[in-house]
Amino acid sequence: MSDAAMPATASGADRIDRLRALLGTSAILGPAELEGRDAGWDAANFNAFALARPSSTAAVARLLAWCADEGIVVVPQGGRTGLVGGAVSSPDALICDLGGLAAIEEIDAETGIAVVQAGITLAALQQATNAIGLDPGIDLAARGSATIGGMVSTNAGGIMAFRAGVMRHRVLGLEVVLPDGRIFSDMTRVIKTSAGYDLKHLFIGAEGTLGVVTRVVLKLEPVVAARATALVAIADAQMGLAIVRHLQTRLPGRLRAAEIMWRTFVAATGAALGFDVSQSPFDAPCVLGLEIAGEDFDEAASALENGLAEIYDELDIEGCVVATSLQQAERLWSVRERTEILYRLHPRAPSFDVSVAGGAIDVYLSRTLADLRLIDPEIEPYVFGHLADGNLHIVLNLPGPLDEAMQEDVERAIYQDLAAMGGSLSAEHGIGLTKRAAFERYADPVKQQLTAAIKNLLDPTGICNPGKILDTKLVL
Length: 476
Ligand SMILES: Cc1cc2nc3c(=O)[nH]c(=O)nc-3n(C[C@H](O)[C@H](O)[C@H](O)COP(=O)(O)OP(=O)(O)OC[C@H]3O[C@@H](n4cnc5c(N)ncnc54)[C@H](O)[C@@H]3O)c2cc1C
Fold this sequence. Notes:
This protein has helices spanning 10-23, 31-34, 57-70, 122-130, 148-154, 161-164, 167-170, 200-203, 237-250, 263-272, 297-312, 326-337, 340-345, 361-375, 404-415, 436-442, 445-458, 472-475, and strands at 28-29, 50-52, 73-77, 93-97, 104-108, 113-117, 134-135, 171-177, 183-186, 212-219, 221-222, 226-234, 255-262, 286-294, 319-322, 351-355, 382-386, 391-395.
């Protein structure tokens, strides 16, 4: 925590005392207790004057009602793995940390649903559901820290979105504490509901700007018995999509992941992880990471091998490695998952998270890369993503942040034709702070007006995560 954030004044200390009286001493961390703790993906997450950790919905409601009365800004935080600054706090803000609401209330194996508190991590839920043959049906590399409440609030996507949907499709019911302390409760356990506006969807992807998510009902999927992994050398996204379509037809319902990595990305992460990146498949223009479900490891591996063999010559596949053990599979996946390597090479590297309809990926990318090189011939971005749903992550090989003019030029190169192509300027990370200017420039103007109107309606005093998604001056 920076010195600027210290509540050196009597009123700062007084607020902390009153918060302790409201929620209990151990539920409030002041600056001294926050000092030295891991602030997560963004150091500015812990700039607040204090952190409150309520342990029930009622306590969150008391906290928000108190903050509304006092005019204190609240920043909800889960695992602090968000990549767009949505959890960043300022010295006048109070963090509402959901770590105290991390229970699994129920897993109903018969109907395949889980009722959880928002602060549970994805990994903890995966472990509990996998033990009884079920799975949350959504997965991402930050699973150990990312919470279900945070994933709801960013409408997270991840590796399996192309088959089981994004968070919005996993949520059946939701409980949210509104900025004035009222509790919106829609803990529906059924997929069908057309009883008026389905308001829970307003809070999914709202990034904590409309209230604090406290409990969630999630739909579960049957767990798979075993998985096999391959890395395949491919020429471009088009070829990767042909492989995906072939495997989806030959092995219906069994493809679990189809991740694409362009050469610069593989060269950086692969080399850092000790792979010989001058060898196939790592030296190809692109590498496709595949995962297939099966009855057991050997059956899954041979199904994957046979499926690839059927199209190997026809598609002119340049090389392929199928993991022969679970350990090897994990090691191969680390090339895709260890994205923090990029940020070690280029601290705070500007990154973008777009989606493009599958068939247009190669055209979009070659136009975008050419435009980026016109801005600076040295720009050679790392590109990777979730091929089967068209979600590309683009990380620049430059330290961030960029100066304002260059940021604007880079955003133009990346976002200019996305809307016309039917894509999205934020596929799964949200808008937060870092994509706010782009949202203002490139999102539909009527969408922006409606967003401001809804924010005003639910949070008229602007205490809930202000400045995220929309600039406060556009809202109040
Ligand atoms: C290595 C790595 C890999 C990642 N891979 C993916 C990926 O494949 N797909 C993907 O979609 N994302 C990915 N992410 C991004 C991140 O993990 C997700 O955005 C995740 O959903 C954030 O969860 P969190 O609990 O960490 O939320 P936080 O970072 O704590 O918060 C994120 C936002 O949600 C709000 N928020 C948090 N909890 C609540 C709540 N209970 N109520 C209301 N608002 C709340 C915060 O105010 C903030 O705006 C990745 C991140 C990392 C670091």
